[in-house]
């Protein structure tokens, strides 16, 4: 797959891990072979229970979904203005975020274009339950199974299978679900997603480009320094021209989103690489940011190769594509894909 923009960031990706292996061999990303089917499973077929909807604001509703694992997950939603005419959308956040990050811009944008919008907070994040006695919220397979339950809720509530949209490590969770025991879906969109091989090769590339800058951002993630340090928060997630007031608002939400680490990156290696989608899978869309300091353009290209599509790389865009200064460029690219996958019920 060809990449439209080639200017590369110079800061490393380190989310949820406390150690950085300093490579001593070549930094070139080896080509990986992907099995046709996932070796692991998401567990037996499960049922989930739907909670009672309460109004969060004039346009956004909040509810909970009880998963087959007995955890209650926060679901935020906004119905399409004038009634849904297109497939519903289910948004999945990444590390140090929660369902709230999709409500700032994307809910209004896509509900105005005929989509019922839903966002889930993964276990241990936002308003979702934290599993008892754990240091890490769950495995990749457990998160994928939870999203599967959320998909069932959306399909029942809207009467059509959703377009699944995953950001960062949420994108990796969506990849795992997509190539495992996937529920009916209208499509899959990956936004600044961790690639199917994980973040290891990206870390090596960033270290090669700037070791000092890599250590700086590594510290930000290990210590959670971006929760209180505006400069580090901007460098990790946002563009230089995001207004300070918006940065402070988002930083406050990020600071309270993560109650326990999303994933154990050492254990995650046992689930990687994610296998390629099987023939006949729903369509895939891959969008990344030219100035992303978390997922580099090569990582975006790897996601696109995995999905068999050309990537959309947005100029001057940072990691938080749905919140950053040029969020509307991401929304427009995603809307173009969402229009192609068909109207509601097709």
Q: In words, what does this structure look like?
A:
The protein is α/β, with parallel strands linked by helices and about 350 residues long. About 30% of the residues lie in helices and about 15% in strands. The chain contains eleven helices and ten strands. Strands 1, 2, 3, 4, 5, 6, 7, 8, 9 and 10 form a ten-stranded mixed β-sheet that branches. β9, α10 and β10 (about 310-315) form a beta-alpha-beta unit. The chain is globular. Mean pLDDT is about 85; it is low at about 1-45 and about 50-55.
Q: What is the mean predicted local confidence, pLDDT?
A: 85
Ranges where pLDDT stays below 50 over 5 or more residues in a row are: 1-47, 50-57
The major beta sheet can be summarized as:
10 strands, mixed
Strand proportion: 5-15%
**Radius of gyration from the alpha-carbon trace, in angstroms:** 18 Å
**What is the tally of beta strands?**
10
Overall helicity:
25-40%
Task: Figure out the total of helices.
Answer: 11
User: Which structural class do the helices and strands define?
Assistant: alpha/beta
Backbone shape: globular
What distance separates the N and C termini?
29 Å
The SSE string, one letter per element, is EEEEEHHEHEHEHHHHHEHEH
Brief write-up:
This protein has helices spanning 100-103, 106-111, 140-158, 169-178, 200-209, 211-223, 230-237, 244-255, 265-268, 297-307, 327-340, and strands at 49-50, 54-55, 61-66, 72-78, 89-92, 117-120, 163-167, 187-191, 284-289, 312-314.
Please describe the topology of this protein:
Blueprint: E1 49-50, E2 54-55, E3 61-66, E4 72-78, E5 89-92, H1 100-103, H2 106-111, E6 117-120, H3 140-158, E7 163-167, H4 169-178, E8 187-191, H5 200-209, H6 211-223, H7 230-237, H8 244-255, H9 265-268, E9 284-289, H10 297-307, E10 312-314, H11 327-340
Helix pairs in contact: 3-4, 5-6
């Amino acid at each position: 797959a060809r990449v439209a923009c080639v200017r590369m960031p110079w800061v490393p990706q380190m989310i949820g891990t406390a150690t950085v292996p300093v490579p001593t061999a070549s930094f070139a990303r080896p080509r990986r072979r992907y099995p046709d089917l996932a070796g692991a499973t998401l567990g037996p077929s499960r049922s989930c229970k739907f909670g009672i909807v309460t109004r969060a604001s004039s346009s956004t509703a909040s509810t909970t979904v009880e998963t087959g694992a007995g955890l209650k997950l926060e679901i935020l939603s906004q119905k399409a203005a004038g009634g849904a005419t297109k497939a519903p959308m289910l948004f999945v956040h990444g590390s140090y975020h929660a369902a709230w990050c999709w409500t700032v811009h994307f809910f209004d944008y896509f509900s105005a274009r005929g989509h019922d919008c839903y966002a889930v907070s993964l276990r241990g994040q936002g308003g979702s339950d934290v599993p008892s006695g754990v240091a890490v919220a769950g495995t990749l397979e457990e998160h994928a199974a939870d999203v599967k339950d959320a998909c069932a809720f959306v399909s029942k509530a809207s009467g059509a299978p959703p377009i699944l949209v995953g950001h960062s490590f949420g994108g990796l969770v969506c990849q795992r679900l997509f190539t495992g025991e996937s529920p009916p879906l209208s499509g899959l969109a990956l936004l600044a997603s961790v690639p199917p091989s994980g973040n290891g090769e990206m870390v090596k590339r960033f270290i090669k480009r700037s070791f000092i800058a890599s250590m700086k951002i590594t510290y930000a993630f290990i210590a959670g320094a971006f929760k209180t340090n505006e400069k580090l928060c901007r460098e990790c997630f946002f563009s230089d021209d995001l207004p300070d007031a918006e940065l402070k608002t988002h930083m406050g939400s990020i600071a309270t989103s993560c109650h326990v680490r999303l994933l154990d990156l050492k254990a995650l290696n046992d689930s990687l690489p994610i296998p390629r989608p099987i023939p006949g899978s729903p369509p895939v869309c891959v969008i990344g940011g030219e100035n992303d300091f978390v997922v580099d353009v090569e990582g975006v290209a790897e996601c696109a190769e995995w999905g068999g599509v050309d990537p959309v790389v947005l100029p001057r865009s940072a990691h938080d594509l749905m919140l950053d200064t040029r969020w509307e460029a991401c929304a427009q690219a995603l809307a173009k894909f969402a229009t192609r996958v068909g109207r509601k019920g097709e």
